[in-house]
Amino acid sequence: MSNSSLIPLIKDYLKQEMTLGNWDSVAPETLPPDPGDVKAYLAKKTAAAKKPDSKVESEPLSKFREPFKIGSGSKAEELKRLREYALGCRQCALCKTRSNLVFGSGDPEAKIMFIGEAPGEDEDLQGEPFVGRAGELLTDIIEKGMKIPRKSVYIANVLKCRPPMNRDPQPVEIDNCTPMLACQIRIVRPQVIIALGAFASRYLLNTKSGINALRGTFHTLSIDGMAIPVMPTYHPSYVLREYTVEVRRKVWNDVTQVMKYLNDKQV
Ligand code: SF4
Prior knowledge:
This protein is of the alpha/beta class and 267 residues long. The chain has 2 domains: 3-48, no CATH class; 75-266, 3-Layer(aba) Sandwich (Uracil-DNA Glycosylase, subunit E). It has 11 helices and 6 strands. It has helices at residues 3-19, 38-50, 75-87, 94-97, 121-126, 133-145, 171-188, 198-205, 211-214, 236-241, 245-266; strands spanning 105-106, 112-116, 154-157, 192-196, 219-223, 226-233. The chain has a 6-stranded mixed β-sheet. Helix 1 runs parallel beside helix 2 (38-50) and helix 3 (75-87) packs antiparallel against helix 7. The protein binds iron/sulfur cluster (SF4). The site of iron/sulfur cluster (SF4) has 14 residues, from helix 4 and helix 7.
């Protein structure tokens, strides 16, 4: 195996160890002695990471944290306080591997809130939600499709820190992180939510159903005495992977229903 082909394997190995919290094993003296063993070692670790009793699935790093309490400030002030609270979060292992926390962005007074899954690589590096290719597509949907400025909506994710190698969010991570998303929803109090993909839809609607079964019709999120309509649709990353007329038509159908709902409300 050439040195250049080993570099990505070694990088993956280091990332995986950090994800699992095995800081000691990233020390040079504990690396597999023979570079040829890296591939086998990685395969073993990947299998271990998928087991429900692996460290990724285990306890939060910090056992108890006082829940955030929404105060009487303006929406912008309360979101700023919540962001500061989130920056100190160490409730799951993702705090060890993130470059930046991705809190959320947009208009605190937004009528429409988009909720995605978790930051990807670009988002992690920039600390902003939806800034990579999927972000460009979302911006097109909002600005070219819905004909409103992106800065007039509010965008957040189920998880505030990037899962390494863009793996799926784990249940323990969702459980630990979503109280902050719930606070964001309570503060912004949007008139409608567009849930991007299965993870956001399942969390908001407390269901195990798949996105194909959920998308295309309004559901309801009951929170703090509010009944917020939720429209699930495909995640922009999925649209980019399955860039067919059919998939784009379905997303357009979902978004159009949201715009019609808001227009009817204004009449
Ligand atoms: S993903 Fe959420 S719960 Fe986990 S450390 Fe980041 S902010 Fe905290």
